[in-house]
Amino acid sequence: MEDILNLIQKEQDRQNNGIELIASENYASKNVRAMCASILTNKYAEGYPGRRYYGGCEFVDEIERIAIREVCDLFGCEFANVQPHSGSQANAAAYRALMPEGGKVLSLVLNDGGHLTHGSPVSFSSHMYTFVHYPLDKDGRLNYDSLRQIALEEKPNVILSGYSAFPYEIDFKKIREICDEVHALMMVDMAHIAGLIAAKKHMSPIPYADIVTSTTHKTLRGPRGGIILTNNPDLIKKINSAVFPFYQGGPLEHIIAAKAVCFKEAHTEAFKEYVASLMANTKKCAQTLKELGAIATDTDNHLFLLNTLDSFGLTGKEAQQKLEDIGVTTNKNMIPGDKLSPKETSGLRIGFAAVTTRGCTLDDASRIAKLIYDYLKGNINQEEAKDIVKSIVSSWKEIQEI
Ligand code: DSN
Hints:
- The protein has 16 helices and 15 strands.
- It has helices spanning 2-17, 30-36, 58-75, 87-98, 124-128, 144-154, 172-182, 194-198, 236-247, 253-265, 269-292, 308-312, 316-325, 353-358, 362-377, 382-393, and strands at residues 19-20, 47-48, 51-52, 79-81, 104-107, 130-133, 158-161, 185-189, 211-215, 226-230, 295-296, 303-307, 328-329, 331-333, 347-351.
């Protein structure tokens, strides 16, 4: 076990000493982590509360019921399945509940900011269903008129919105109108923006969508896992049987307990303040980079895209590596109109969910922008950049105290 503990300590040091700007990462609270490490991991509970295939489930039943109640309260919905082990599992079950195999989904392609499970050739999704994609405008924004036009031509079973690398607010009401016009069901994958929706800082998809899926570990700041929500009574049974027994076996009751704690935490004023500060930090960093002369998208949420190729003559892959060398973690990402492959890319996706949890201020967000700009431009060397990283993180909470 020593070798594993050693590596965990190294990972803890890496997380404490670095600036984490991967838009899909966050730091779960002590209480969430305590649930993940609890004895609930010992329990088998295939089935659903009150309808299990194993004995001894009275306490995990109650825990799962609390998680369901809390997430329904948080997002204002009628039904939730809290068992998906991940966002991908949640999406797989949602597709199965929404349409027969071979059904057609209109979605955003991975390269434009969609997710692997939104029809990528390397994902199960494109092997089981037919995907057609709507384009973004040249500036990377959604064009609801072209979405509607393609929906009228393609007549999909499902229109999917909610993305992994999209920096703007999504108008779910407009998408519902298009769904109604073409008689499609509406699915939203809110994994990235779930925390913003919980804090009421982004339009909620719940009143409009037939199914909403999410992860619980991104802006929602809970344990690694997935959820499925609906207000459509026709879909409840289909969702449950798609999750178990179709795609999954025993639920992870320790993670479900951690989800319950996360939903309670996300229902507090402190969480609302966190989300407001996360969005302000993201905007500040994007604006400062632009004022310094870099090319980046605007942002209405927790992330933006930085064009490293035109700003610094570096591909996204090169910029990611250079930043990693000084302890700043980002991920290479396609930018609007990208001509390079997804393995190289012309930019980076930058998000502030994790650093804001540690206490990143607006002033820190400007300092981070200046650090990225000066280092990628070659105005400061690696040692100078590392000193700036050290000085920025020195005022932040240690991750084990969160
Ligand atoms: N892989 C996640 C992300 O980084 O956005 C989505 O699941």
